[in-house]
Design a protein that fits this description.
By secondary structure, the protein is α/β, with parallel strands linked by helices. The chain has helices at 15-28, 47-58, 74-87, 104-115, 132-138, 158-164, 187-200, 222-225, 254-264, 273-284, 287-313, 333-339, 343-354, 381-398; strands at 34-35, 98-101, 121-126, 142-147, 169-175, 203-207, 230-235, 248-251, 327-331, 356-357, 359-360, 371-375.
Length: 399
């Protein structure tokens, strides 16, 4: 009899976690790394946020440390519901239609657990965030890939969607703004997905952790197009920037929120207490209005520096200037052919020889293996330029 349940091996160690361990070891040896791989903010939360947390830590009280309701404090859920409306989102009942989770990942997984059965099919983008495929497989379901390429602005084909939907389709996953492409889904495509979801009675899992990290354009609120079939998931990892404090939320129809809370009673039990208190302060005191414009201005300048450097120094690569998020997804096949390397081999050799860290596109989908994900939020414009000069040097030396 196997010691371990076989479905566990559908879960992979997060690629970015593997890269983070390599980075940590390299830094211990004194290497100066150019971090174009990092998938998290580089600007800390506003000072007022941090000062409030410091005051909480001084309390002679269990308030920052105790258990909370599984769904999170009601006052926080109320603050999140009010924030959603301010942002242009739907009106949500904080009692029945919203739950606070231990990070975005718990929201993703428990939403899938509540809606997807063994033998179902789940449509996911190629490329898309790499957690979805292993989660779907772990649940005994089959991922079906809906392809999006640089030629189409990373917008998928509606004609292809009609071919992908079958009697086994249980859910369609959309991430917008997207990781790894920075694409905002076209509203026309979102409406077409909603039409299919209503007609076929299938779920839309709408992941929106970057909904406030937008440089041009605006967020598409799928839940306002159709409430009954949409489960929306979000995170406070990107705004205000507390990825390590693990706080997110899910909102949608009351029956699915109830099911998610039942599951979460046996996973995290409750979201982190200190993070709940801090985020309620962030939302109630409208700290985003002071903090986010500065963050977006800085990230936009880094994005623009990266785009210019790639255009100039890597002219055979193809990419788009992303209107949102933290990443640029670059079609790299001309250089991979010259080097006779896969994306994984290229990224590994580049990191070892030039200290430039990237993420191979194959992590994001089977048809994306000739892409490379670049992150522009960690390094300054000058260091971004230097990192891409080193990539050019590496290609010239090896080719």
């Amino acid at each position: 009899m196997p010691r371990i349940v076989e479905s566990v091996y559908n879960l992979i160690i997060s690629p970015t976690r593997r890269i983070d361990r390599i980075i940590e070891a390299a830094k211990r040896s004194g290497r100066d790394l150019y971090l174009l791989s990092t998938g998290q903010p580089s600007i800390p939360p506003p000072r007022e946020f941090r000062e409030y947390v410091a005051e909480l830590m001084k309390l002679e009280s269990m308030a920052p440390y105790k258990y909370t309701p599984t769904e999170g404090y009601y006052s926080l859920r109320e603050a999140i519901a009010e924030d959603l409306e301010r942002l242009g989102g739907p009106k949500v009942d904080p009692e029945k239609e919203l739950t606070v989770t231990a990070g975005g990942a718990e929201g993703l997984f428990t939403a899938l657990m509540a809606t997807v059965r063994r033998g179902d099919e789940v449509i996911i983008f190629d490329p898309t965030y790499f957690d979805y495929e292993p989660m779907v497989k772990f649940l005994g379901a089959k991922p079906v890939y809906w392809r999006a390429t640089v030629e189409t602005g990373f917008q998928p084909s509606l004609d292809e969607l009609s071919d992908l939907v079958s009697e086994k389709t249980r859910a369609i996953v959309i991430v917008s703004p997207d990781n790894p492409t920075g694409r905002i889904i076209d509203e026309e495509i979102a409406r077409a997905v909603v039409d299919i979801a209503v007609e076929r009675d299938i779920w839309i899992l709408y992941d929106e952790p970057y909904k406030t990290i937008i440089y041009e354009g605006s967020h598409v609120w799928v839940s306002k197009l159709d409430w009954e079939h949409t489960i929306s998931m979000a995170s406070f990892s990107k705004d205000p920037g507390i990825p390590g404090w693990r706080l997110g939320y899910v909102y949608g129809p009351s029956d699915v929120i109830h099911a998610i809370n039942l599951i979460r009673t046996y996973t995290s039990y409750n979201p982190p207490t200190i993070a709940q208190l801090a985020i309620e302060h962030y939302l109630r005191n409208r700290l985003r209005e002071k903090h986010l414009p500065m963050v977006l201005s800085e990230y936009r300048s880094r994005r623009d520096a990266m785009y210019r450097a790639i255009e100039e120094l890597l002219p055979e690569a193809r990419t788009l200037k992303p209107p949102a998020g933290m990443f640029m997804f670059v079609e790299f096949s001309p250089y991979l052919r010259k080097l006779r390397m896969s994306g994984e081999e290229f990224v590994e050799a580049l990191g070892l020889e030039k200290n430039v860290m990237l993420i191979p596109g194959s992590f994001f989908g089977p048809a994306s293996r000739n892409y490379i994900r670049f992150s522009f939020v960690t390094e300054t414009p000058g260091r971004i330029r230097r990192a891409i000069e080193l990539i050019r040097e590496f290609i010239d030396e090896k080719a």
